[in-house]
Specification:
There is one protein chain. It contains 10 helices and 6 strands, in the order βααααααβββαββααα. Helix 2 packs antiparallel against helix 4. The longest helix is centred in the first third of the chain and has 26 residues, at about 60-85. A 6-stranded mixed sheet has the order 1-2-3-4-5-6, sandwiched between helices. By secondary structure, the chain is α/β, with parallel strands linked by helices.
């Protein structure tokens, strides 16, 4: 199976190039390294306390010195961030990394992660099968995280990570059905919606007749058991349409043909 992804877009800068080249930003990175060294020194002092005591340096004093280094690093970091106009309040690891890399923090892409899981689970499929990303991504009411195309037909797939028993559960089968219907109308061929679960499906009560609910292994068995419904020419034509809907680059178009 060949799984396609759109090229990574260049991330927006957290601060301007002028600020990135300034002394305060250099101090931000320097303070991070200094803080890491202080933390390492704190733990090394604990693990090598016997050696330090023999050298006449009580390990408690060494740890106190390491804590002082971390404190100094934090002061430098906060002052430098303030100088750059960056808020250090509520600092989390992702935010810290975005500051150090000078990239705007972006939330994790759940759909992309689910496509990687499906690609790994369906790795036994031949190269006649193509996995396309994010159809109708601009419309949450019918967004399809992935569409699988092969000799057995077209399959719209969505992975559920929520507990169906939770109060805030939003049935992912609803947008899956809407997107499948829209795609079916666009392509002119049947689109089979599959709601996949990573472990088991016992807690999910499926009210939608059209939606097939499977675990990954069962979904693979279902897909491979389908009789051939599309010939090579039909697959090429549908592949081109899916590549266009997924906003894939021209190079991917050519690889589908």
């Amino acid at each position: 199976m060949r799984a396609f992804e759109r090229p990574e877009q260049e991330r927006k800068k957290f601060i301007s190039p002028e600020k990135e080249a300034s002394l305060p930003y250099w101090l931000v990175r320097f303070s991070f390294v200094l803080g890491v060294l202080g933390v390492i020194g704190f733990f090394l002092a604990f693990f090598y306390q016997t050696v330090l005591n023999r050298l006449g340096l009580p390990y408690r004093q060494a740890q106190a010195a390491a804590i002082l280094v971390v404190f100094i690093a934090w002061v430098i970091f906060t002052l430098a961030c303030r100088r750059l106009g960056i808020s250090a309040r509520g600092l989390t690891y992702p935010k810290l990394m975005s500051i150090l890399r000078n990239e705007v923090e972006t939330p994790p892409d759940e759909f992309k992660a689910s496509r990687k899981q499906v690609a790994a689970a369906f790795g036994s499929l031949s190269d006649d099968w193509l996995l396309f990303p994010d159809i109708y991504a601009d419309d949450p009411s019918q967004a399809l995280p992935m569409v699988l195309l092969g000799p057995g037909g077209v399959f719209a797939i969505r992975v559920n990570y929520q507990d169906p028993r939770s109060k805030g559960f939003q049935d992912p089968a609803v947008p899956l059905l809407a997107g499948s219907a829209a795609l079916e109308k666009r392509l002119g061929v049947a689109v089979k919606p599959i709601l996949a679960f990573t472990r088991h499906t016992k807690r999910y009560s499926n009210p939608h007749e059209r939606v097939k609910v499977f675990t990954f292994p069962d979904a693979l068995v279902y897909i491979t058991s389908r009789e051939a419904a599309l010939d090579a020419h039909q697959q090429r034509q549908i592949g081109l349409q899916l590549a266009e809907l997924a906003n894939l680059p021209l190079s991917v178009f050519r690889s589908v043909i």
